[in-house]
Design goal:
Helices cover about 45% and strands about 10% of the residues. It has 16 helices and ten strands. The strands form two sheets. A five-stranded antiparallel sheet has the order 3-2-4-1-5. It folds into three domains: about 80 residues, no CATH class; about 230 residues, Hypothetical protein af1432 (Orthogonal Bundle), CATH 1.10.3210.10; about 70 residues, no CATH class. The protein has about 425 residues and is of the alpha+beta class. A hairpin with a 4-residue loop joins β8 and β9. Pfam families: DUF3391 (PF11871), HD_5 (PF13487).
């Protein structure tokens, strides 16, 4: 049986099933193992992780009367919270107002058309971010005008159709991660800022924060940044230095808004005060840093890394919901889920008919009724001709009954099914 417990109740002999937090919060390259070594216990207790899942069928249970929650109890609470999202009023926040951007053409575009334009933006953006990181490694200032132009292009794409670029940017290889992560977080920040009803100039400020938040990784040795296995404690410390390194790079270069500097320095802070580098808590963390923290973690856990495969988008949101009371601003997280959907594009789901499909687009009317391309029947255990099902259509009797784990099914063409691209586009 799976139980979620506080880390203070973790003891030798327990079987660790999962950390309640992203793998950026700890130096362990694996999550499932029997806890036998006192050094491992000490290392876990020294991390920012507050809760952990144990499997009592494979190891020791907690003492009787110790507070814990079962997987069923946690899932039921999350599903209840998600079901109420559409009833919640918009979250109101404030950001500083930078100079107004020029007027641009951002007419709405259908998903298919915007995917083609987004692919071209991804190619251009990756080249620009690679150049930006190389310049930073050589001690040169960031080209703020060039970065602003890139943010405007990304923002325009998100305005035309938010699902396209956000979803494409997730399809990065482990080698591309550092650079395309900046592009993805930029797009996510713009979408979140729109959901928060921020002004256009503030949306671009949020996008700039997303684009530059990880610049400090230019100071991290590539051998450490791309290491495929477990980090040593020293290497983990080096990686955790990137917010401060990035802050100094941007501060010394000049022409970067204070809000962007703050997001760079504090995007790994947590609302419970267990983050870094300054252990800020709650309202002590700026709104833009709280926004960046959510977008940063979501893209990190849904992307393939040198040491771990990315999680399914819908499953990632479910897990992030578990961590919210410790990690994230709950109201901004609710707005984030609204901005990308409870079942984001690329999520693998099962319908009432027993068919399995991939989410291809969000519905403009409801968070729980996206457009799904079904392609597999669990009743016959066979692939079926792909069919697009609009769950929001008045005559549709289908609904999503479960998230599915891509690792279990190992369909080789999931990304092609929703994107239409047979190969990586950049």
């Amino acid at each position: 049986m799976l139980k979620r417990i506080h880390i203070q109740h973790l003891t030798l002999g327990m079987y660790l099933h999962e950390f309640c937090g992203s793998w950026m919060d700890h130096p362990f390259w694996r999550a499932k193992f029997l806890l036998k070594d006192p050094k491992d216990l000490a290392r876990i207790q020294a991390t920012a992780i507050q809760e952990i899942w144990i499997d009592t069928d494979k190891g020791l249970d907690v003492a009787e009367g110790t507070a814990s929650m079962s997987r069923e109890e946690v899932d039921a609470q999350i599903e209840t919270d998600f079901s109420r999202l559409e009833e919640l009023p918009p979250v109101k926040v404030k950001l500083p107002s930078p100079p107004p951007p020029p007027k641009r053409d951002r007419k709405p575009a259908d998903m298919h058309s915007e995917l083609k334009m987004a692919a071209a933006i991804c190619v251009k953006s990756k080249e620009a971010v690679v150049s930006m990181f190389n310049e930073a490694r050589m001690g040169r200032a960031v080209d703020s005008a060039g970065a602003q132009s890139l943010v405007e292009e990304i923002s325009d794409s998100v305005t035309r159709n938010p699902g396209a670029l956000i979803s494409l940017a997730r399809l990065k290889t482990a080698d591309d991660y550092t650079y395309m992560h900046s592009v993805a977080v930029c797009a996510l920040m713009v979408a979140l800022a729109k959901q928060l009803k921020l002004k256009e100039d503030q949306q671009r400020l949020a996008g700039m924060a997303g684009l530059l938040h990880d610049l400090g990784k230019a100071a991290i040795p590539l051998a450490v940044l791309n290491k495929p296995g477990k980090l040593t404690d020293q290497e983990f410390t080096v990686v955790r230095s990137h917010p401060v390194e990035g802050f100094h790079m941007l501060k010394e270069g000049g022409n970067v808004p204070d809000a962007v500097l703050d997001a760079c320095l504090h995007h790994h802070e947590k609302v419970d005060g267990s983050g870094y580098p300054d252990k800020l808590a709650g309202e002590g963390i700026s709104v833009i840093a709280r926004m960046t923290a959510i977008c940063d973690v979501y893209d990190a856990i849904t992307s393939d890394r040198p040491y771990k495969r990315g999680w399914d988008p819908a499953e990632s949101l479910r897990r992030m919901a578990e961590w919210t009371k410790d990690h994230f601003d709950a109201r901004i997280f609710q707005a984030f889920v609204k901005s990308i959907g409870i079942y984001p594009v690329g999520s693998l789901v099962r319908l009432t008919s027993g068919r399995i499909g991939i989410v291809t687009e969000q519905s403009p009317t409801a968070l729980t009724t996206p457009i799904v391309k079904v392609f597999f029947s669990t009743k016959s255990d066979l692939r079926i001709p792909p069919e697009v099902v609009n769950l929001a259509a008045p005559d549709c009797n289908e609904k999503i009954v479960a998230r599915e784990d891509p690792e279990r099914w190992r369909f080789p063409d999931l990304d092609e099914l929703w994107s239409g691209f047979s190969d990586k586009v950049w």
